[in-house]
Amino acid sequence: MRKTKVICTIGPASDSEEVLTRMCLAGMNVARLNFSHGTHEEHLKRINMIKNVRERLNYPLPIMLDTKIGLTIVAIGTSLPELVTSTVAAKRGETGMAIGNAIGSNIFNLLFILGISALIHPVAVNMASVYDLLILVFVSGISYLFAFTSRKIARFEGILMIMFYAADVAFAIVR
After folding, report:
1. Distance from C-alpha of 130 to C-alpha of 138, rounded to nearest angstrom
2. Cα dihedral angle (143, 149, 150, 151), rounded to 10 degrees?
3. Which of 33, 42, 121, 172 is an S-S bond match for 38, by CB 3.0 to 4.6 Å?
4. The pLDDT of residue 5
5. What is the structure's pLDDT at 21?
6. What per-residue string of b and e applies to 82-116 under the rule 16 or more CB within 10 Å gives b?
């Protein structure tokens, strides 16, 4: 019995029943839709296609909808290297490396990765993403103020930053 589960993100490249059928036959266990990209109409179309393939093949295929997963679990998982690097650097007193790593990674992710993605296929922006960008601008401003006021981010400010993150995750879950 195979214990590993195969989660496949369904998007423009897999936007046909033929491709979805091949993915099921190849072992797809979960069809994932990223609600951070695309319109509700596009997602409804994909959900209906998945249901059609599932019924036609008599294949148990759950659908995972994950705006919240993208903002929480995936974000944490992909940011663990930055967390370790910045934590070790701060512990060693290399504060420039600690802050540069966090800022540089975010700039790279926002501009380069999103830019490459848009080159490959236009990236639809829904209202959830607009809210997330507004939150990003707000917390970037707060972080700048923390760093600018005394040329360091103090423990209390670090606690506030963690609380802002917890509030952001809570907001993503309830919206």
Report:
1. 12
2. 60
3. 42
4. 78
5. 93
6. beebbeebbeeeeeebbbebbeebeeeeeeeeeee
Q: How far apart are CA 146 and CA 144, in angstroms?
A: 5
How much is the pLDDT for 70? 57
d(CA 25, CA 146): 53
Record the tokens describing residue 150, joined without a space: 């005394």
Distance between CA atoms of residues 45 and 22, nearest Å: 18
Secondary structure (DSSP) of the chain:
------EEE-SGGG-SHHHHHHHHHTT--EEEE-TTSS-HHHHHHHHHHHHHHHHHHT----EEE-HHHIIIIIHHHHHHHHHHHHHHHHHTT-HHHHHHHHHHHHHIIIIIIHHHHHHHS-----HHHHHHHHHHHHHHHHHHHHHHHHSS--HHHHHHHHHHHHHHHHHHHH-
Q: Which residues of the chain have pLDDT under 70?
A: 1-4, 36-37, 66-74, 175
What is d(CA 92, CA 55) in angstroms, rounded to the nearest whole number?
57
> Could you give the angle at the alpha carbon of 167 between the alpha carbons of 162 and 170, nearest 5°?
130
How much is the pTM? 0.58
